[in-house]
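sorry for the late reply, my laptop died twice this morning and i had to redo everyting from scratch. anyway the thing you sent over, i finally got around to it. pasting the sequence first so we're on the same page, its 173 residues, then the predicted structure underneath. double check i copied it right bc i was rushing
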Amino acid sequence: SGANVAMISYYFGSKENLLVAIIERFSHAILSILKEAYEVDSDPHTRMKKILESYLNYSFDHPGPIMIAHRELGVNMRPALRSTIQNTHTQAREMVNDIIVDGQKAGIYRQIDVALLIQSIGSMVDSMVNELHHLKRNGFDLCGMNMLDIGDEKDRDKIKYFIIEMVERYLKN
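ok and here's the structure:
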């Protein structure tokens, strides 16, 4: 990109402020996308599918902020980042929780451990994004390893279908 430490310091004040700006931008973008899907005037099944598709598309198209967020949570050195990441996760989980509860009230979804399902979905997607992006970036032949490539549209569609189908089958009454 041609950026150097002096440029980063000039625009952001420090590398830490750059990371805060990246995470804040990511948080705003993902929450806007999820809120749009959440606010669709439709049944819980359609809303769940829409929010999952939105989350998956954004995650596949923007792996960088997800990897930064995971790294930062692991080192736990920047409280401002931790707070932003935590708030983003909380708001996203609340939207999914509300959709599931609405589905349960409507008799579409069965009674489940909602927190566990939400955590499982997020962990699975984040793990796929991190692992597949790291392997591809480091020159691994994903096809030769019999792994899907999140950069390939057919593989993305396969992953999206699998996750959405798995969640729907688990939730359905």
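Helices lie at 5-12, 15-38, 44-61, 63-75, 79-105, 114-137, 153-171.
thats about all i looked at so far, will dig more tmrw
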